[in-house]
Specification:
The protein has 153 residues and is of the alpha+beta class. The chain has a domain at 51-151. 23% of the residues lie in helices and 24% in strands. It has helices at residues 9-23, 32-36, 55-69; strands at 76-87, 97-106, 111-119, 130-135. A 4-stranded antiparallel β-sheet has the order 1-2-3-4. Strand 2 (97-106) and strand 3 form a beta hairpin. The longest helix has 15 residues, at 9-23. The relative contact order is 0.14.
Length: 153
């Protein structure tokens, strides 16, 4: 005598779920009220401060990263050769950024290039300007490797 296999519970549940999705109504586009009410999107003005405004943040973040994460006493003591590299180098729909470069003087006596960008609405919870930076040779977690190429435009 041949036994007929019974359907198992997971298979039955999957078939029922697929049937439920088949009966669901199709997604529709937003109506005019939904499109114009609280869905205006970001409004980037491109009003970014000059490169000098980012140096304090770079100094603070570098010292915090070296001290807290790498247990290092390495700090930035000063800057020279500060210059803007690019401003909004990509399409106009991207988040505005000002790319800068400088030579960072470290407390170990070395002078290393530092590349950083000032980002509109890039601060904590999108309030204020944010700063991303990379010091060549001290990118210990390789976030911008090779040689801080990821921090440039």
């Amino acid at each position: 005598m041949r036994l007929v296999p019974t359907l198992k519970l997971p298979v039955v549940a999957a078939v029922a779920l697929l049937g439920l999705f088949a009966l669901a109504p199709a997604a529709q586009a937003a109506n005019p009220l939904e499109m114009n009410f609280w869905l205006s999107g970001p409004r980037y003005d491109g009003n970014l401060p000059a490169c000098e405004a980012g140096l304090t943040s770079v100094t603070h973040q570098f010292g915090e990263k070296e001290g807290n994460f790498w247990n290092s006493a390495l700090r930035i003591t000063g800057y020279s050769q500060l210059r803007e590299v690019a401003f909004r180098p990509w399409q106009s729909d991207n988040i505005p950024r000002r790319f800068c470069a400088a030579d960072a003087h470290l407390n170990d006596g070395n002078v290393r290039p530092v590349y950083f960008s000032i980002i509109e609405d890039g601060g904590f919870a999108s309030f204020g300007h944010g700063v991303e930076f990379c010091v060549v040779g001290v990118d210990r977690n390789w976030a911008f490797n090779p040689a801080c190429k990821g921090a440039k435009p």
